[in-house]
Amino acid sequence: MTVFDPWSAEFIAHPYDAYAELREQSPVCRYEPTGQWLISRYEDVSALLRDRRLGRTYTHRFSHEEFGQQAPDPAHEPFHTLNGNGLLDLEAPDHTRIRRLVSKAFTPRMVASLRPTVARLADELVSGLLAEGGGDLIAAVAEPLPVAVIAEMLGVPESDRGLLRPWSAAITGMFELNPTPETARRAVDASVEFSDFLRELIRARRIAPGDDLISALIQAQDEGDALSEQEMISTCVLLLNAGHEATVNTTGNGWWALFRNPGQLALLRSDPTAHLPSAVEELMRYDTPLQMFERWVLEDIEVAGVRIPRGSEVALLFGSANRDPARFTDPDRLDVTRTDNPHITFGAGIHFCLGAPLARLELTESYGALLRRAPRLTLLNEPSWQPGYVIRGLTELLVST
């Protein structure tokens, strides 16, 4: 198991050779440093995402003691309350009820109506990069775009939008493997501050509804059922955290992949309109921003002939599954015209990403604006990776225009 080392800078920079070794030699194996079972093949990962014998939580069926797990530190309660009331970490029947209500507000029509706004914001950010003659593509374009979009959706005043990114970064630090006490402290502080901020925003929208997602969430009802204030707060935070981190890192990782594959970049530049839809899917597959997704085993299961007992935690290796040659032809080759591409970057089953249409819209407009307006975009030096493995992305991507 020395090939899998999620705290190693070398592994984070290029985990794909290690994944290949896992798929071939140990497709289901226990990793002692985290106490998880690593699942690396596409077929198994895809099946387990849909298997209702697994769950994002276990507390809907068992106490911590019954499940053989230690209760969370009471000092972390604000984080767990915030995270535990969001769609990502709920199971039926709460997940079913909340997803149904949120879907009434977060409709395909609402997402489609955002296209002009997303296109305008992307164009403005690329204009800024061009005016400077280049800079850090992540800080100048990749990060500000999804934050601006979700802020517009939620109706966050422009003067407060600078708060969102630091809160998101602090909270998502808890999703990494074996987070430190300092990481937990920052996540708790951010959870309290973000929740208080949204509570005030919700109170204002109850008095004076607007044309924004918070107002729509307040109004969303089904047979008399409505979202609680905590459920609304957790939903808004999840939309920012999940959507923002995925879009930022898919943009940065994707451009780094294109710069390393100049023939594919030239092909994409030759006809962005024709190739962008398949290119966006391929870039999400090729270097997915979410490398690992965890599930609890609620009943004994068997995977590839290996028994995994109830109470275990499986680590579904999305990055490995998306490079599995048993499912993808020549998976280590970037192909922006690839059409047979059932990647699992957005997950599968009941937890399939609710924000997938918005992420695709943001990525299409971001890549499109850069391809059209910066056709000579050039990488200045090889980037470095952030220390996180679960949510994997670059620290910066310096370019000239």
What do these coordinates show?
By secondary structure, the chain is of the alpha+beta class. The protein has a single domain (9-400), classed as Cytochrome p450 (Orthogonal Bundle). The chain has 17 helices and twelve strands. Strands 1-2-10-7-3 form a five-stranded mixed beta sheet, with helices on both faces. A three-stranded antiparallel beta sheet has the order 4-12-11. Strand 5 (221-222) and strand 6 (225-226) form a beta hairpin. The N and C termini lie far apart (43 Å). 43% of the residues are buried. The model has no long low-confidence stretch (mean pLDDT 95).
Count of alpha and pi helical runs: 17
Q: Helix- and strand-based class?
A: alpha+beta
Query: Segments where pLDDT lies below 50 for 5+ residues?
Result: none
Q: Major beta sheet, specifics?
A: 5 strands, mixed
Count of beta strands = 12
Task: Identify the CATH class.
Answer: Mainly Alpha
Descriptors:
single chain, 401 residues, alpha+beta, Cytochrome p450, 5-stranded mixed β-sheet, 12 strands
